[in-house]
Design a protein that fits this description.
28% of the residues lie in helices and 14% in strands. It is of the alpha/beta class and 565 residues long. Bound molecules: 1-deoxynojirimycin. The site of 1-deoxynojirimycin has 9 residues, from loops.
Length: 565
């Protein structure tokens, strides 16, 4: 069996602070708001919080452009507020994991300001500089993820600096030992405050390869260098050093956002001896509904492909690494909407998707609002868009006439990052209980019926279902440590698998369709000791007739030695 670790046995909850809860009525979530909801989170049963960045930032990328690693942005509160959050979370048994954004800083970070003050500055080498191409212009054809080239000109020196995201997010040069030392010291200062770990933003991209040559362009006209960067073996050298010096060994959690990573690389990153990271988010399943125009299409993720990719990661990581499991986060649309499930099936599909994810092997992450069955926002005007990725894409594709305005708004509502960043829906009252002021981002109008207050005491609510699901993880080792074995992998509408740990076995069957489906269990799951551990419906016909209702998920348990409670 894999070695027991707290973060394997935990369910995490991601807080996007700007949209979680606003205590002071300025329209933006804050730390006091998070504190006010800790009881809600503890009752949900989660074990740990991942809090997206709360550091000072000019906000070009909603906090993922940090201008001071040591402080708290005034919009969120003060360091005293943060310390109170930490101690109150700990008092409720909740661990706290902070975002560590060290692939890049903000262009307003003092290091970058010093770096552009002149070539002789000490911090110049903290960033990545190249001379213009021989005929002028950027040094190569690499593209930035939020549009345009990955290079911007520093007019003072005539050199270009690298930014894989936006020009306001210059990439750090991890080859520089003095920089690494500063980063590790900063990490240790946060650990000294008592945090339980870091979620490491695009950590797979920190080690830039020696090969800075141009590559084959995508339809965007630029080369996407992420695959080449993530494959640089130097990444593992840096991470091993960071583990020792920044994290002081293996006690705290290192959760990596592994953009563009391969299975082989993820096995190294999360190898069980803990020398690099503990677990990674991979994105292969999130890239299944893209097309020629990047994610801006209405293509849906085909279930057979989704299963294929997730099963590859389940079986490929077995005994060799650890997956972080997610359907949504602040960069991804809400899965219910992404798969096209309408209001009629919203609650049923929310419960089914939750079951499917939480029963896979790995550590499940709930993104705020998943536990209520929150859905995508429908944007009706480009003025409503906040995220630079969507705004740039809108300007580009609508600007050059390749996508019609209404279609682009539809695609952004389906796939953009703003669509899951709408404020948390606490109640049907003014401001959805999120704010007493004017929310920084439009509320999803469905807050009037999709909200926490309505679900708190309803026994068949999505929220109540999440509580049951989370409780099960504590009771059954097989949910945490059992190996995942795909079942009926070719079935077009059912996502099914078993989990096996010694004598214990689970069967998980999830109906991804709006039809009732007869779906026979594998041999061994209709024994006297087989019981229905969970169904997402109040009454299930599965044990009697092997029929799954529309969007039903069932979990069967074979545990010969276990007594039924
Ligand atoms: C990944 C983060 O999740 C995303 O929100 C951000 O824009 C990029 N990294 C750049 O920091």
């Amino acid at each position: 069996m894999d070695e027991r670790r707290w973060w394997k046995e935990s369910v995490f909850y991601q807080i996007y602070p700007q949209s979680f809860c606003d205590a002071n009525g300025d329209g933006t979530g804050d730390i006091a708001g998070i504190i006010s909801k800790l009881d809600y989170l503890a009752e949900l049963g989660i074990d740990a919080l991942w809090i997206s960045p709360v550091f000072p930032s000019p906000g070009y990328d909603n906090g993922y452009d940090i201008s001071d690693y040591e402080g708290i942005a005034p919009q969120y509160g003060t360091m005293a507020d943060f310390e109170q959050l930490l101690s109150e979370a700990h008092a409720r048994g909740l661990k706290v994991v902070l975002d560590l954004v060290v692939n890049h800083t903000s262009s307003e970070h003092p290091w970058f300001k010093a770096a552009i003050s002149g070539k002789a500055s000490r911090e110049r080498a903290y960033y990545i500089w190249r001379d213009p191409a021989p005929g002028g212009g950027p040094p190569n054809n690499w593209g930035a993820l939020f549009g345009g080239p990955a290079w911007s000109l520093d007019e003072g020196s005539g050199q270009y600096y690298l930014h894989l995201f936006s020009p306001q997010q210059p990439d750090l040069n991890w080859e520089n030992a003095a920089l690494r030392k500063e980063l590790y010291a900063m990490m240790r200062r946060w650990l000294d405050k008592g945090i339980d770990g870091f979620r490491m933003d695009v950590i797979s991209l920190i080690a830039k390869p020696e090969d800075f040559s141009s590559g084959t362009p995508c339809p965007s006209g630029y080369f996407d260098p992420r695959g080449r960067i993530a494959a640089n073996p130097k990444l593992h050298v840096h991470l091993r050093e960071m583990r020792k010096e920044g994290l002081r060994g293996s006690g705290v959690l290192a959760l990596g956002e592994a953009s563009a990573t391969t299975l082989d690389s993820a096995r190294l990153l999360t190898n069980p001896n803990g020398s690099e990271l503990d677990m990674v988010f991979q994105f292969e399943h999130m890239d299944l509904d893209g097309g020629e125009t990047f994610k801006w299409t209405d293509r849906q993720i085909p279930l057979p492909e989704l299963k294929k990719v997730l099963f590859k990661w389940q079986t490929g990581m077995e005994g060799r690494g650890w997956n972080a499991l997610f359907w949504n986060n602040h960069d991804q649309p809400r899965m219910i909407s992404r798969l096209g499930y309408g209001e009629q099936w919203r609650e049923a599909s929310a419960k089914m998707l939750a079951t499917c994810l939480h029963m896979l092997k790995g550590t499940p992450f709930i993104y705020q609002g998943d536990e209520l069955g929150m859905t995508n926002m429908c944007f009706t005007s480009p003025e409503q868009l906040k995220d630079s990725e969507s705004r740039n894409a809108y300007a580009r594709y609508v600007g050059d006439g390749s996508i019609k305005e209404a279609d682009m708004l539809h695609y952004i509502s389906l796939k953009g990052r703003d669509t899951a960043r709408t404020p948390m829906q606490w109640s049907a009252g003014a401001g959805a209980g999120f704010t007493a002021g004017v929310p920084w981002m439009p509320l999803n109008p469905n807050f009037r019926h999709v909200n926490a207050q309505e679900q708190l005491h309803r026994v068949d609510s999505v929220l109540a279902f999440y509580r049951r699901l989370i409780t099960l993880r504590r009771k059954h080792d097989v949910i945490v440590y059992g190996a995942c074995v795909p079942y009926a992998a070719e079935h077009p509408g059912i996502f099914a698998y078993t989990r096996v740990l010694g004598e214990q076995a689970l069967l998980v069957c999830c109906n991804f369709s709006a039809e009732s489906v007869h779906f026979a269990p594998p041999d061994g799951f209709m024994q006297a000791h087989t019981r229905l551990l969970l169904s997402s419906y109040p009454q299930s016909a599965y044990m009697q007739a092997a029929v799954l209702a529309p969007y039903e998920a069932v979990v069967l348990l074979n545990a010969p030695d276990e007594k039924e409670e």
